[in-house]
Amino acid sequence: MSQSANGKSIRRRAVLGALGAGASASLGGCLRRARSVAGWDSMDPVSLRIKTLPADSDPYALHAARTITSWYRAAGIDAQVVPVSEEELLRQVLLGTDFDAFLVRTASLQRDPDLFYGLLHSQFADARGWQNPFGYTNLDVDEWLETQRRATGDRRREVVAELQWSIARSQPFTVVGFPDEIRAARRENYTNWRSANLRSPQGYLALRRVAGGTTERTSDDDSDEESVLRVVGTDRRATENLNPLSVEYRRSGVLTGLLYDAIGHVTSEGMAPWLAESWAFADSDGNPRATVRLRSGQTWHDGEPVTAGDVAFTYALLADTSLGSSEGQDGETAAETRVPAPRFQGRSGLVDDVRVLDDDVVVFRFGDCSPRVATRAFTVPILPKHVWQERTDPASISGIEVGSATEALVTNNIPPVGSGPLRFVQNTPRESLRLEADESHFLFDGESVGVRQGIGPPEFDRLELQVVGSDDAAVGVVAESGADVTWTPAGADTVPRIGRTAGLGLLVHRSTSPYLVGYNTQTPPLTNPRFRHTLARLVDRSYLSTEVFDGYARPAVSLLEGTEWVPEELRWGGTDPVTPFLGTEGELDVERAREEFRNAGFQYDDGRLVRGT
């Protein structure tokens, strides 16, 4: 950003801040007089319930939530931590907005500024899923979000900087930090552990088998040997549900990404074709249009051919899982009665229309965005029309409809029918899952694009997932040669055990899955951005990184921390430049905190923060 542009933005922020403070003071005075005349004076204590995961589901979340709650209480807030199972937490937060605040680790984020569009645009304020779960509305942020979609080059960089400043000031969520992902792996069966990105499906395809490894087993017919990749983790949900559209069952898309193909996938150089053989962009009335050619001869795991019709069907289903069959009442329009999928809306919403040219060619028309942003739509899983078109009816349990949902959203999708490099074999709910390599997949073609990108076919015949009760137990299974790697990341307290166990390798990878505290901005007093801003100043992220994450985490201001998109003045430099901690080394300065809350229009009654005046 140029100096003049940066100076202009800083001046604008100062003016907006002064206007906000003046408006708050004026409004507070008017409200006090109105209450006095009316003869009532509300002095309700401020209370917050932070929902998070129990310790056996996440090595850090509960500890971090309790530490943050201690700072809230020191500031006079009636705060409590409510541990909830991950499935139920995501259901309450993402589907039911039943929360004050929540602390979770997000799924792996695409490192593109357009991730903020689905996360914060006000058009999604009443949507379900990770589409604006905060109920956040901010016209300035909407403007930046829309502008960055169509801007390019330096202009987009300036817009994204302004966008991040607006988010940091208004705090719909507070970024806690990016934890390192810690895993234990055995070396005798597979190599390339340190280079493989186990946060993505392609990471498992980058593993290389060691000839003669102990995981080579005789197959049932004793005619040849099979190699098995054995993984162990704490997340049981993949053994019960393999629906790629279910937000409450998906911490990550690794397993469903091995079962289902997308048109493209993210590489270090940008978006590259995957199920597509190629794509070409052109201009159509000022908006992008892409002609996508699919790889010919690809089949679903049940033997049916993958066609352009499946692609068009997928994007129609993501936009409305009822496929227009929901009947509006009292004059409701079709748009008002749509039942969109609670995942992928930020990406699939880029698409205006998909038209089939022939079995292998499909044309995408996009909304107002640049071609670079448009390619984000290519990363959703492509679904087989002949399986999913029967799942458009309203969801019901024992004949009773369960609200605004369709069968597509509630099915466990077992057995799944995908086109990915692995196919489903067997599951035991809450205990295990077995997948096997599908040799009809294009990766087994030596001339495929995947191979040229350094990704080959899986060098294992089967993948077996075992579920255990804790990350320490998972490390123990690997240490005792019962598995090759911990599938879900382990906590830092397992590092000493991994380090002193012979044959065990410690894998530490930088994560793109941050922890954050999300706020329900539609529930008072969290409707007040100054209140949320002050809440963020009660969180010492440096202290959390050291004391909760044992140094295995990077504090951050923005979800784009570590990318080129964060302006220098917003990068973490030992402290938060926008919401610095109101204290030192984990000790809250209570008087400063009280002063900040008073400036935000609150008062104290016998040490308790209250909403009335």
UniProtKB/TrEMBL annotation:
Keyword annotations: Signal
Entries under InterPro entries matching the protein: SBP_5, SBP_5_dom, TAT_signal
Ligase among keywords: no
Pfam families per the UniProt record, alphabetical: SBP_bac_5
Segments forming domain Solute-binding protein family: 272-608
PANTHER family in the record: ABC TRANSPORTER PERIPLASMIC BINDING PROTEIN, PERIPLASMIC BINDING COMPONENT OF ABC TRANSPORTER
The protein, known as: ABC transporter substrate-binding protein
